[in-house]
Write a structure and sequence with these properties.
By secondary structure, this protein is α/β, with parallel strands linked by helices. The protein has ten helices and eight strands. The longest helix has 18 residues. The protein is globular. It starts with a helix and ends with a helix.
Length: about 250
């Protein structure tokens, strides 16, 4: 009830300049049913309503449009660990996942918009670098043959947290979902929002040709390099060790 009430209080306006300036089309933004909030906790944010499978709103995600303040970039309202976004927000995402039997897991709505606008509507947002048991259970219920872990490529930063989180995601997913359905497919740049449509098309073409063995060998080699260069937690070493065991079980040394 609180969420539905807040929806009316937000005063959403179809003001898209923030994302239009980032080369996202008006058609895509309309499909995501977003708008600028003129009131409430998400005031002066581009607000994205989160729908459940019954077609009802059960949360909001708001991206700030004023960059020169100290407020967080994103604010989420609702139980985001239960969200499977934007699967139930538009028929294009649902149909593309169903028809392709493939899905890209990305960090943020910004990544999702960039992929969607380039024709890759089969993506789901993790709202950060972790995936919840509820998210995994919902994902497992879908008829998907290829799950692409596409968290940000933070290689230009001190630590590549996107790649570190990919290990954790693969470790969690492989406990519930067939290991050979899980692929490591990071963006070629930092994130999809910083890539052109041509670059995203090239990325998609490469993913289409990618085999599972090469994908897993790539992330294992990256993981060994990361582990040797950084003082990472014991859990990362454990995830790396488990991934190596899975790889050796399926493909040998």
């Amino acid at each position: 009830i609180e969420i539905l009430t807040n929806f009316h209080l937000l005063g959403i306006l179809p003001h898209f300049d923030f994302y239009l300036n980032r080369k996202i089309s008006k058609e895509t933004l309309q499909d995501y049913q977003c708008g600028l909030a003129t009131g409430g906790k998400l005031y002066q944010r581009i607000v994205f309503p989160i729908f459940n499978k019954e077609g009802k709103i059960h949360g909001f995600s708001g991206r700030k449009v004023i960059e020169n303040n100290d407020s967080p970039k994103w604010i989420h309202m609702g139980k985001k660990n239960e969200w499977l976004y934007p699967l139930f927000s538009n028929t294009k995402t649902y149909d593309k996942i169903k028809d392709s039997k493939q899905v890209f897991l990305v960090e943020s709505i910004g990544d999702s918009l960039a992929l969607y606008d380039s024709g890759i509507q089969n993506n789901l947002v993790c709202f950060g670098l972790s995936i919840s048991p509820k998210f995994i259970a919902n994902l497992a219920s879908l008829d998907i043959e290829k799950i692409c872990i596409s968290f940000n490529n933070d290689s230009q930063k001190e630590r590549n947290r996107g790649f570190e989180a990919s290990f954790k995601a693969i470790s969690k997913l492989s406990q519930v979902i067939d290991f050979k359905k899980i692929f490591f497919c990071p963006p070629s740049k930092n994130d999809f929002g910083s890539m052109t449509k041509i670059e995203i098309d090239s990325f998609y073409s490469e993913v289409d040709k990618l085999d599972h063995k090469s994908s897993m060998l790539n992330i294992i080699n990256i993981g060994k390099k990361i582990n040797s260069e950084n003082n990472l937690s014991a859990s990362f070493s454990k995830d790396l060790k488990n991934l190596c065991k899975l790889y050796n079980f399926y493909y040998g040394n």
